[in-house]
Structures
1.
Amino acid sequence: MIQLVYISAATAPMSKQDLKDLLQYCRQHNPQIGVTGMLFYGNGTFLQVLEGEEQVIDELLDTIEQDPRHTGLQVIQRKAITEREYADWSMGFQQVSERALRAAASAELDDFHEGDFKTGYLREHRIVVQSLMDHFRKQRIKAAGQSELGVDEEDAMINVLHRIIRLSVRALAIMMVITIVWGVLEVGYALYSQLLAPAVTDLRINDIVVIFGAFLSVLIAIEIFVNITLYLRDDVVHVKLVIATALMAIARKVIVFDFEKLTPMYILATAAVVLALGLVYWLMDRQTVIGARYQRPEA
Ligand SMILES: Cc1cc2nc3c(=O)[nH]c(=O)nc-3n(C[C@H](O)[C@H](O)[C@H](O)COP(=O)(O)O)c2cc1C
């Protein structure tokens, strides 16, 4: 693996929306090719750290270099690594503004100002580049262990709201774990009471089906937990996983169907939902595969 750092000049000032679009693309594409890193932008200048397999990084760099959004790309550091420094970021982001620099309160960055963040200066002051990278990487790790902050993080109110949401999601994750443990205990208890039944014949097929239902409920709870943790990691709702969870939930219902009590209409409607969810899942799966192939013609 290698870690590579380059600097470049934006051909036109990047608006928040431009940066958001760029980051959204990177955060979607980089995990598919095993790339991590961080992007700094300020004063019309980019500084980007890229980590990954050498060949992948070289190919990505070729693509990035041809991007018309910037020019004059210069690699200022390239080294072999055994461990990623930005393992948690498919592409972290830091706006280099006077405010962020002063808030950094770092001795090495005391004499560094937003106006200095330009390729000529950065090329000559590698120590500053290293300090910038180190400082903001560590700050991110401290900032509640968030993985990917949005480009809006400079806005104090949005920042607070963002934190509240993440805290709420964390609370949900904890409650979900409690639910899972509770579910496991329930399944254990149901099994235990069945095993204690006077004769094996008492363990009727219906009871077994009920136990299957309880098992599947716990699995669904685990899927929901995974949904929550993935949201915390990526700041994105993974729709494919949500569909998979819905499929599991409906499959659970199908498994415990009591055909003597259900109306044909109910069964048909359930079949339609299963079909629709299955189709959506298949389409999303196909899109991911085709997308990955499109973006990695060598694969
Ligand atoms: C400063 C900058 C950094 C970029 N970083 C990445 C990156 O980390 N990963 C990525 O896939 N594309 C990145 N891009 C976008 C690529 O240059 C390119 O637009 C994208 O890979 C799509 O290329 P394609 O249309 O040839 O598939 C970056 C672009 C710029 C201007």
Note: The chain has a mean pLDDT of 83.
2.
Amino acid sequence: MLAKTKAGLVALLAVPALTVGFAGQAQADGYCGAGRVCMWEDGNYEGSRYVDVTAGGPYDIDGWNGDNEISSVDNASGLYIVMYDNDNLTGFMGCVQPHQRIPELWRNDEMESFIARDFC
Ligand SMILES: [Ca+2]
Ligand SMILES: [Ca+2]
Ligand SMILES: [Ca+2]
């Protein structure tokens, strides 16, 4: 059922978006591949891309490269990203909705682990 919904969304969005040209965006900051979860050091999908993973997990953001540094998120998956303040999915912070992009996290520089799953 998820796949059907997603396919429907893609079909709806693809026609107008294609005229803009996705080719030029593929290399740009802020692009996260379909079904993946990406997180950046800075707002607006800029700076180091500390996270670029297949939606799933649990994932522990690297202590030297990402812990307490994440400022923007692109959830290019049909799952929720559940974010945590500490390692090992402790200290619940909040959720990113399916296919939601957040240019400035409301809790900036706090996330240390997360999981992508089908509920918040
Ligand atoms: Ca971590
Ligand atoms: Ca940051
Ligand atoms: Ca933290």
Note: Confidence is low (pLDDT under 50) at residues 7-27.
3.
Amino acid sequence: MKVVSSATDLTKVYGRGETRVVALDGVSIAFGRGEFTAIMGPSGSGKSTLMHCMAGLDSITSGSARIGDVELAGLDDRRLTRLRRDRVGFVFQAFNLMPTLNAAENVTLPLDLGGRRPDREWLDRVISTVGLSDRLHHRPAELSGGQQQRLAVARALASRPEIIFADEPTGNLDSRSGAEVLGLLREAVRELDSTVVMVTHDPAAAAHADRVVHLADGRVVDDVRGA
Ligand SMILES: Nc1ncnc2c1ncn2[C@@H]1O[C@H](COP(=O)(O)OP(=O)(O)O)[C@@H](O)[C@H]1O
Ligand SMILES: [Mg+2]
């Protein structure tokens, strides 16, 4: 399996002295193309930190984090920004949509910011996969929570990223909308061969994944495929 994202002995320490926190304590893990992984673990176990470090949103203290063959620690801010924009998609618990833009504009915003021409055919496919073809001119406030999160997933997919990191993407949704978004992530993996890494508290959500990784105290304590 082609490795899309990997960490080797990844350590992240916040603060110093009395406020020193070891958020990640030597994590080694790899995510392959077309793999849907759920990350679970108690609050404070390092789930968000792992995603942020592997996605280049946060610096690492020691060890290595790579997207493909690219070592993130070796990149200056400009290169890191470009790598995130071109190769990584994010979905957060709060949808982080732009309220003044309509759905279509929200989806293409990252491409527009990067000065990239959208691949029309791909966008049409993404938008029909997320089931929002008839909502393109609606603003986020005119969409349900589930639709807003599906829109956020479409935005994450728009640039054809190699990997999507989703941090509790169903955390703010009722169970029906949550199931919709999980089904959509599943479909992105199946139809678009995306790689998805998703943090969740919810065992029912994790059941949608191919693989479940458990963290505790900043370490991988369990890693089960085909669960
Ligand atoms: N910006 C930060 N500054 C200091 N400590 C932090 C910061 N972010 C996270 N932490 C600490 O790192 C640990 C892991 O946090 P986090 O990755 O957010 O856990 P999780 O997502 O599993 O709930 C926690 O002890 C948390 O308090
Ligand atoms: Mg978290």
Note: Helices lie at 47-54, 77-87, 103-113, 120-129, 145-157, 175-192, 203-206.
